[in-house]
Amino acid sequence: MCVHVPCPVYRERERETEEMAENGEFSFTSRARSTGRNGLPRIQTNNNNKETLVCHDDSATPIKAKTIDELHSLQKKRSTPSTPIKSPLATGTAADGSFAVISEEERQRQQLQSISASLASLTRERGPKVVKGDPATPRKVDGQPSTHSFHYTSTPTFDDNISDSALKFTHVLYNLSPAELYEQAVKYEKGSFITSSGALATLSGAKTGRSPRDKRVVKDETTERELWWGKGSPNIEMDEHTFLVNRERAVDYLNSLDKVFVNDQFLNWDPEHRIKVRIVSARAYHSLFMHNMCIRPTSEELEDFGTPDFTIYNAGQFPCNRYTHYMTSSTSIDINLARKEMVILGTQYAGEMKKGLFSLMHYLMPKRQILSLHSGCNMGKDGDVALFFGLSGTGKTTLSTDHNRYLIGDDEHCWSDNGVSNIEGGCYAKCIDLSREKEPDIWNAIKFGTVLENIVFDEHTREVDYLDKSVTENTRAAYPIEYIPNAKIPCVGPHPKNIILLACDAFGVLPPVSKLSLEQTMYHFISGYTALVAGTEEGVKEPRATFSACFGAAFIMLNPTKYAAMLAEKMQKHGATGWLVNTGWSGGSYGSGNRIKLAFTRRIIDAIHSGTLLEASYTKTPVFGLEIPTEIEGVPSEILDPENTWSDMKAYKDTLLKLGTLFKKNFEGFVNHKIGEDNKLTDEILAAGPLF
Ligand SMILES: Nc1ncnc2c1ncn2[C@@H]1O[C@H](COP(=O)(O)OP(=O)(O)OP(=O)(O)O)[C@@H](O)[C@H]1O
Ligand SMILES: O=C([O-])CC(=O)C(=O)O
Ligand SMILES: [Ca+2]
Ligand SMILES: [Mn+2]
After folding, report:
1. Ligand 2 centre from 355 Cα, in Å?
2. Are 215 and 320 in a shared domain?
3. Running DSSP on this structure, what letter comes out for residue 181?
4. Bridge partners, residue 55, by sequence
5. Number of domains, the chain
6. CB atoms within 10 A of CB 249
7. What domain of life does the UniProt record list for this protein's source (predicted)?
């Protein structure tokens, strides 16, 4: 430290600081380095050596950089160099059949060729010219291809003014790290901020939820035969040509940008049935969201990635053309199973990518006799696995995230002959009204790396207000699953023991918990009931019943009875028990009753996991014929039968019948479908519904 008083430069600065202090603008430095004017003694040295009159640079080691640019270049070292890899694609396959070793340069070339092919127009013969790296970062000229600057075609001249698509380069930001994506988002995307806990706050634009009425699937000879079409189906048809029109629109849009983000990742933790996906997007927000939500490849896995099994083109900022056939709004989310592609136009809501891939899995997995499920999943210390089914907002994420159990996943799973596996690498939690006390693990997961969508924060402290619905009620946090301390990695487990169906019944007539027979489980699985109140709409007082087959009709591809038959077979084979848990209202409908306390629901779930609820004594309810326990530890017994909690008995009975009628009416759509080999199971399932 340079503390010698006689240093002239120092003296000069000291005077300035003091002057500033006198102007009342700055005082800390002047007080700390007081000259005695305000009473504090000056630091004295007794060294009168002539040399000390010069203020030395006190660094012992010589400076390595001569310019600021050089200094900055010292700050970043190249990522761990990848080792030469084996590739069956390399031309020089040895005569003995062993794979040739390819250079890092060759591997990079192949990778860029693959990305270039993804981004190619289907009608033009050439291009795009793809180059890796941020256009804003000066390129190295030492000829060293680093992962962040390697050109596929000839060396380009970088000129921001060139926008002609035939001349410009498409800059690719490939599998960036969360830190790099934060920088991109904060620098270039309006509405991106770092919150006080380190999460990245983002805005998804005009759409803050999915757009199921704009989700289209290409109908060709195969899909016409295989998929579920018509009433109740989520698959809105479009033809191949229209898909190509939208694909071209998306690809042209993406290639017109300064840069695009490319994520190469995996779906499904079951190594035998892993799917390789590529996501091309325009926003760092989208890239970080998918980084968190899909399975993140290791660097070796990435080197061997090759051609993806499925590609998403997310051009969400750009609308579809309303003159295009089939288009009914500015938004279109289009899936083409034959081409293994999905195109997003006119919505930036990131959940479209997540659930679009889920739809894909609902097609691919049943073809391999694997059941795909909209469910959460966790496992006890003894290896007992539970699945949590339920529509949006019913508690899959909240209840599968349990400090006493291992989290396998919160939303999308596969059930194969090997057991269960998570499809994803992350969780997507609702955050409205989130509190540290009630959901500590989710709260703590909202840290550096987590994407926080559409939340409101204090402009100065960046403290998030989870109660604030100003942007939307559907505020969300997307984080890697390992942010939950007791996540089970790899996210796989044995066959489930308990199948928990969650319904948030805002009518308040379903019991907090009922034990189900296999037929009842199937009946409620096919019905897929929940009733919520539209929290944001003015004047909506009546609960609105929703029936969504398999607790996820928006994502299934085949007729619901196909999934139901597989579930029945698996539950029977592995002896799983079905439960119906109402996470909604008690003591009256929305407006007069209250939502069942999360703490009580957790005790109910604990009793299911521990096996004590299976041993409890039961009574049967009228209308729905549900078996309800008389006692559960930690839960007031009087709430177990909803009849006890309503003060107006007539209102209770009317509401119960009203809900029973809605169930019956919904099930009419399924009575003509056979479930399983013969009609026996179908008849039994029909008889397991409400009787009155
Ligand atoms: N008794 C209860 N049981 C479960 N959740 C409750 C209960 N009371 C209130 N909640 C709240 O309900 C919400 C449940 O949302 P959650 O994120 O678990 O939905 P989800 O089923 O995972 O939906 P999605 O498929 O949309 O992600 C949470 O905000 C939770 O705090
Ligand atoms: O996909 C989404 O937007 C959120 C979700 O998990 C669901 O709705 O099931
Ligand atoms: Ca969830
Ligand atoms: Mn979901």
Report:
1. 7
2. yes
3. H
4. none
5. 2
6. 20
7. Eukaryota
- Six token digits for residue 39: 């009473």
**Cross-strand bridge partners of residue 453:** 202, 476
Alpha carbon distance 211, 188 (integer Å): 26
Q: Is the CB of 392 under 6 A from ligand 2?
A: yes
Asked casually if ipTM beats, i.e. exceeds, 0.90, the reply is yes
Question: What is each CA distance from 123 to 120, 307, 336, in whole angstroms?
Answer: 9, 21, 18
| One domain, residues 551 and 532 | yes
Contact 141, 180 (CB under 8 A): no
- The token duo for 466 is 């989870």
Number of C-beta neighbours around residue 55 at 10 A = 15
> Is residue 428 lining ligand 2, measured as CB closer than 6 Å?
yes
Q: Is residue 531 part of a domain?
A: yes
Pocket lining: 351 vs ligand 2, CB cutoff 6 Å? yes
If you average pLDDT over every residue of the chain, what do you get?
87
* Residues involved in catalysis: 210, 355, 374, 392, 396-397, 411, 476
Q: Which domain holds residue 240?
A: 104-134+167-367
**Could you tell me if 261 and 342 lie in one domain?**
yes
- Residues whose CB is less than 8 angstroms from the CB of residue 141 and which lie 6 or more positions away in sequence, other chains included: none
645's tokens: 């909690």
For residue range 154-197, list pLDDT tens digits in order: 344 444 444 567 778 899 999 999 999 999 999 999 999 999 99
Residue whose CA is at the smallest distance from ligand 2 atom 3: 351
Residues 239, 382 within the same domain: no
683 φψ region: left (φ > 0), alpha (ψ -120 to 50), beta (else): alpha
Half-sphere exposure of 402 (CA within 13 A, CB side): 28
Give the whole-angstrom CA distance, residue 361 versus residue 367.
10
Q: Computed from CA positions of residues 567, 568, 574, 576, in that sequence, does the dihedral angle turn out positive or negative?
A: positive
Residue pair 99/93 in contact (Cβ under 8 Å)? The answer is: yes
Please tell me the distance from the alpha carbon of residue 383 to that of residue 462, in angstroms, as a whole number: 41
The pair of structure tokens assigned to 268 is 């499904």
pLDDT tens readout for residues 562-604: 999 999 999 999 999 999 999 999 999 998 899 999 999 999 9
Using the atom order of ligand 2, give the atom closest to the CA of residue 374. Answer: 9
Strand-pair category, 496-503 with 577-582:
parallel
**Residue 276 amino acid letter:** K
Domain boundary among 367, 396, 425: 367
Could you list which residues have their CB under 5 Å from ion ligand 4? 411
